[in-house]
């Protein structure tokens, strides 16, 4: 299919976008007014007093100090989420030097404006630290704002890759929407042990058939170097969506780290952001790039690729930071209109490097544009029009060149055209019913598992489910209800610790499903899981009234999650209460009590300040 910006926009994409625009008129206008109030003629630092400005350049070398004093050229803020422990962010260590060098070639300057926290959910999965994970997004947003609030900068380069980090950086930068922004990723690690084999070893360990050494060997073979984890979870979904929103240098998302192409892409991002400041004729502030059209483009691309369910929370929060109101009904209708084009683990066996080799981001965007499923006439950091993002970068003679991405998939088991999708619909659905509203990702769930009617078994922690599995109590059809895992309860941790046990039971032929007010992220996999359910248990939601043996129905075709008792009986039940476990405020969790108290619902983006 040939890409064309002239293809009529799909009627559902058009109607959902218009509904979002109309719903958001007041909040969007207020946001744009705020951004306008921060714009000024000349450099941003021109409004600082001499004492303020002198503090701002005091530590610069003489050349940069002279340039900053002149107030004629852009000074670029570098906001980085680098740390040594997070493999995806380790390559960012040397980027500030590359950036300073690149912008100096244009007569500009760059300063490392601030670092932000960066949690690795792979390290904290199933542990206490996971309860800080969701709130780290808002902490990163606030850290970004602190970095930018000095008014020294004319544009921003945000260095980050992983789950909460990209949304946090973007939310923080949107508070300074009058500044241009380019996001700089680092790329995925090379393929190691296949994701399927890793999952097989994990399952053997859960069954007691291999020991810790074999499991650690498998994990270390899968996670073996610098770069993003290779499955299509939240981190890699972030990168796909940054392309779809026009916030990357085109084709940057999945270029491997530490090679000459990656280095040149980083240098190019640094120079490009200098070319779109208010000091140039091509001024492109962030508030003009992030609008209802680019946000819909991001959601459609998420659905077409089977991306992370975390983004049914994060992209709502990002939208609200730009004054735009999006809800799960929007996600659901866009999902119905969007074909599933990708099979990347956990939705298939291929990893993100296979996806990149098969055609990658350029192929996906070209297909969706050609089908009228994306807004073509959007603003991007690379110029007007999303067509820029159907290109792939190459390096020739030390210089970057872009060529059109392949129009034919190099591997149809991984990537397909719109005319022959893996599924006619996207991978995410909204479930409603007496228990509330929840999200389910079905792209990795086989059709025979998309309807489950079974009695509930209620758990208040992941650990008690494991104990029940170990004791043989779960050898039957059931729907696991894991509650008191919402944002107000304990920060809404991801619950992957349960996945191997539920997977084993499903493979043994039992009908199993999960219902929870917690999260599962992009790696939710083959188990039907109604997640992000709200009202959450600790707020007295109906999930707190479910009792062992209650018959539940999870039906993805009809998009319902129901409890088969009368509304009167449910109303008369008293909700269960959860007492804080011993030491539940250790590992820093005590410091986040205020955020738990103030957080909104998952469908409101689980934000603490919006």
Automatic annotation (TrEMBL):
Domain Dihydroxy-acid/6-phosphogluconate dehydratase N-terminal per the UniProt entry, residue ranges: 75-387
InterPro entries: 6-phosphgluc_deHydtase, Dihydro-acid_dehy_C, DiOHA_6PGluconate_deHydtase_CS, ILV_EDD_C, ILV_EDD_N, IlvD/EDD_N
Location of the Dihydroxy-acid/6-phosphogluconate dehydratase C-terminal domain: 413-606
Record GO terms (molecular function): phosphogluconate dehydratase activity
Pathway where it operates: Carbohydrate metabolism; Entner-Doudoroff pathway
Positions bound to [4Fe-4S] cluster: 162, 229
Catalytic activity: 6-phospho-D-gluconate = 2-dehydro-3-deoxy-6-phospho-D-gluconate + H2O
Keyword Ribonucleoprotein attached: no
Pfam families cross-referenced by the UniProt entry: ILV_EDD_C, ILVD_EDD_N
Cited function: Catalyzes the dehydration of 6-phospho-D-gluconate to 2-dehydro-3-deoxy-6-phospho-D-gluconate.
Record-stated family: Belongs to the IlvD/Edd family.
Protein name: Phosphogluconate dehydratase
Organism name: Zhongshania arctica
Gene name in the database record: edd
């Amino acid at each position: 299919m040939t890409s064309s910006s002239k293809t009529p926009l799909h009627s559902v994409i058009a109607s959902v976008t218009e509904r979002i625009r109309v719903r958001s008129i007041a909040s969007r206008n207020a946001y744009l007014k705020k951004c306008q109030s921060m714009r000024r003629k000349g450099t941003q630092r021109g409004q600082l007093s001499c004492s303020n400005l002198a503090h701002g350049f005091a530590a610069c070398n003489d050349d940069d100090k002279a340039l900053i004093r002149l107030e004629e050229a852009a000074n670029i803020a570098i906001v980085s989420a680098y740390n040594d422990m997070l493999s995806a962010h380790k390559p960012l260590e040397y980027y500030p030097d590359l950036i300073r060098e690149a912008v100096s070639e244009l007569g500009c300057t760059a300063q490392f404006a601030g670092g932000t926290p960066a949690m690795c959910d792979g390290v904290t999965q199933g542990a206490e630290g996971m309860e800080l994970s969701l709130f780290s997004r808002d902490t990163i947003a606030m850290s970004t704002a602190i970095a930018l609030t000095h008014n020294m900068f004319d544009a921003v380069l945000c260095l980050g890759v992983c789950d909460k980090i990209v949304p946090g950086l973007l939310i923080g930068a949107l508070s300074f929407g009058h500044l241009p922004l380019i996001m700089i990723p680092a790329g995925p690690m090379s393929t190691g042990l296949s994701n399927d084999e890793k999952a097989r070893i994990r399952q053997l360990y859960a069954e007691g058939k291999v020991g810790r050494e074999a499991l650690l060997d498998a994990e270390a073979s899968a996670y073996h170097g610098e770069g993003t984890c290779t499955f299509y979870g939240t981190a890699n979904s972030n990168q796909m969506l940054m392309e779809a929103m026009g916030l990357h240098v085109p084709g940057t998302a999945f270029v491997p780290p530490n090679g000459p192409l990656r280095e040149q892409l980083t240098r190019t991002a640094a120079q490009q952001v200098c070319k779109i400041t208010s000091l140039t004729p091509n001024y492109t502030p962030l508030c003009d790039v992030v609008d209802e059209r680019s946000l819909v483009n991001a959601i459609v691309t998420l659905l077409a690729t089977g991306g992370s369910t975390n983004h049914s929370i994060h992209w709502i929060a990002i939208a609200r930071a730009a004054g735009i109101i999006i809800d799960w009904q929007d996600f659901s209708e866009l999902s119905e209109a969007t074909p599933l084009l990708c099979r990347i683990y956990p939705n298939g066996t291929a990893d993100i490097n296979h996806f990149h080799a098969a055609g990658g981001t350029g192929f996906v965007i070209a297909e969706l544009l050609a089908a009228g499923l994306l807004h073509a006439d959007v603003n991007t950091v690379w110029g007007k029009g999303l067509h820029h993002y159907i290109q792939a970068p190459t390096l020739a003679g030390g210089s970057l060149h872009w060529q059109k991405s392949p129009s034919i998939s190099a591997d149809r088991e991984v990537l397909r055209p719109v005319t022959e999708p893996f599924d006619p619909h996207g991978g995410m659905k909204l479930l409603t019913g007496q228990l509330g509203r929840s999200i389910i990702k079905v792209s990795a769930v086989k059709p025979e598992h998309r309807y489950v009617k079974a009695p509930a078994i209620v758990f208040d922690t992941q650990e008690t489910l494991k104990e029940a599995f170990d004791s043989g109590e779960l050898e039957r059809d059931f729907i696991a209800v894991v509650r008191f895992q919402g944002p107000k309860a304990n920060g809404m941790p991801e619950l992957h610790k349960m996945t191997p046990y539920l997977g084993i039971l499903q493979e043994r032929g039992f009908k199993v499903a999960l219902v929870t007010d917690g999260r599962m992220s992009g790696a939710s996999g083959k188990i039907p899981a109604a997640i992000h359910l709200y009202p959450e248990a600790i707020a007295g939601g109906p999930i707190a009234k479910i009792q062992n043996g209650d018959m539940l129905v999870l039906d993805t075709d009809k998009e319902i999650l129901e409890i088969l008792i009368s509304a009167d009986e449910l109303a008369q039940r008293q909700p269960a209460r959860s007492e804080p476990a011993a030491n539940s405020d250790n590992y820093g969790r005590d410091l986040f009590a205020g955020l738990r108290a103030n957080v909104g619902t998952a469908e409101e983006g689980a934000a603490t300040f919006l």
